[in-house]
Amino acid sequence: MSVKIGLVGTGTVGGGCIDIIQKHREDFKRHFGVDIELARVCSLDKGEAEAHGVGHLFTSDFHDIINDSDIDLVIELIGGTGVAHAIVTEALKAGKHVVTANKALMATAGEEIFRIADEAGVEIAFEASVGGGIPIIDPLKHSLISNEISSVLGIVNGTTNYMLTRMDEDGMAYDQVLAEAQAKGFAEADPTADVDGFDAAAKIAILASIAFNSRVVLDDVSTEGIRNVQPIDLKTARDMGYAVKLLAIGHRLPEGIDVRVHPTMIPKTHQMAHVNGVFNAIYVTGDAVGETMFFGEGAGAGPAASAVMGDVLEVARHITLGIKPIVGCTCTDKLPIVPMDNLETRYYIRLVVPDRTGVLACAAEVFAKHDVSLRSVVQEGTRERDAVNLIFITHTAREKNIRAVLADLAAMEDMLQVEPTVIRVED
Amino acid sequence: MSVKIGLVGTGTVGGGCIDIIQKHREDFKRHFGVDIELARVCSLDKGEAEAHGVGHLFTSDFHDIINDSDIDLVIELIGGTGVAHAIVTEALKAGKHVVTANKALMATAGEEIFRIADEAGVEIAFEASVGGGIPIIDPLKHSLISNEISSVLGIVNGTTNYMLTRMDEDGMAYDQVLAEAQAKGFAEADPTADVDGFDAAAKIAILASIAFNSRVVLDDVSTEGIRNVQPIDLKTARDMGYAVKLLAIGHRLPEGIDVRVHPTMIPKTHQMAHVNGVFNAIYVTGDAVGETMFFGEGAGAGPAASAVMGDVLEVARHITLGIKPIVGCTCTDKLPIVPMDNLETRYYIRLVVPDRTGVLACAAEVFAKHDVSLRSVVQEGTRERDAVNLIFITHTAREKNIRAVLADLAAMEDMLQVEPTVIRVED
Fold this sequence. Notes:
The first copy, chain A, is an alpha/beta fold.
């Protein structure tokens, strides 16, 4: 008996899923005794369905899938928290298993979705919501569960990692590399979700929830993006023995969960420093396993469809064998979120200031006023003749004090020419 | 109701498992609703059990576990294919689930073990048999199953990777670094299984079987170790832009499965080139997911126990929920093993020959005789005054012809002073 699939969303990833089913359906039957059948596809564009040879399964109304009692499993691939929320919750309530790639939905409504799935006795799976094709949610929910996980570090946004790699390797300016990423289709016309870190923040919220057995939502994540990063920052970091990555960070601390996204210096010798271009990686540390890393392609039709269809086959196995959901929500603990203000680390801060005598001393005084001890200050020219870069490296300092420094500097008349660049160090 | 565990083997990994159960039993109950109870431990050394506070559970006769109808699951950690074979098969026949870290057993008797488990309706799990704590078998059996896997490359022996790293970074000679690895406990007194590649061969047999859905056994793997590798080889490779790793290789080719273990040059830019010291990594390429890598600690009490206990918890979940085995043997295809003779690649070959005029021309002639085209030949001094290194880099050549070259050279009187070093290139 086949497991019948309703697919909502026939864009890049949805197309990839259709391709996999068409190419490997017989393999899946032979290898795993599971027969998956695409029963219905839904999107706003019939042409996409037709292009994959499934125009005859097309509907533009997702209720045709929800209300079809033959359909066992719904794949949601339209993204966002609007219609997607309705599709996922209605499908679950209708007793259908759901597989989704929707990070924004899981990072904001995860608790509700797990509750509805639990009440309906069906499965919700979302491997593709983090790290594209990289198996990470499944290992965290299965292979690694004998561990107390102490940290999860992720390079989970391919767009910004590509941009940082290009700036580092080729010295391209931020605007130039953003334009290139947009031209190549790596970045959206509105790049906010990527470059301001919100995409990565949703992903670390999901990973931290699973790794620490405690619900973390998007709003819990302190988030800074890469808009203020320029080649000079990457070059300076390199000279110091560091690579700069937009790192999504989750730490289990005695006082709770520390969770944040920001440009971060990591030692060149660290495995994550070699994760370049559009590749993603997630670095997990546990009390038994020690250090482990999961690396792969974080986006694109193939990788994301690989993760979606891995989930689909797993659920289909359970359906075929008549097995009820095995793993539901594992957020049984209620750990507090540690305020970012409490963070203690070293900071790289670059200011663009007027090129005049005394400006360095003046800025240094602000750091001293807030008890931030400096390890070094370097003055470097900019392309503007009347402005210079002041690059400060601090000793270990408290986030709260750094924010006070930055607020004071911003309030000073005729001081900051552009927003400061702040890069935290993760050793 | 608790799931009762019988543990056979209380050495390093067994001790790690006892520690995890003692430390996290309450966490497992709270997070996953699974209560695991250590009911019996078996080994030849009661002192080990006592050292972990479980002397009261000790027996020296594994039949006390097999015959105990209260025990649901047996962990086998004694290794080898003798008594371990009896323990695993008898436990399965007695209707007990089995978790093992035994690569040699799974790589030689895997088919039989799967058949017995299937007949008895119980689970056999063996994540810890490859890559220590790295989740790799589970991802291959679950997350990645929507892919046709085209290759699996593994750095799966920490001892030899440590030795190669030390030779590369510190220029230490083979004998010196082996002695150091033995002193540090990374290498056994008899290092054969590690340095001759048999440990890695068992692991790639297991990985290839799962990845390609076709049974590969230890004897199918063409295996060469690192005994003939010296710092000069690593230095030459580095100058050419390569790192040398003992790579376990499985490729799905149109004509069958190509599976082998040997010292291998991989480009410095490849992610695997940065896997150093005792770390392991497995690099998997699939038709949808593209390239993905799993990295972590390949040995030691914690990592191996993490993998064993991950399997135990997974099986315990199923026992608790009354779920029958979900995934059994997936080797449904019968793909042939491609003979190593058919391999076509580039070769690095270093000969130690007498330092006399004409020896280079004489050796080069042997290559020409067997149609092996040379890209470069370099002559370098050795520490012996009357011997020199001849380093040949070939264009793409056929393994069969290379073997003919080496046989001819070995047969020549007064030519080879030591066994040649052969390193294949994987681009």
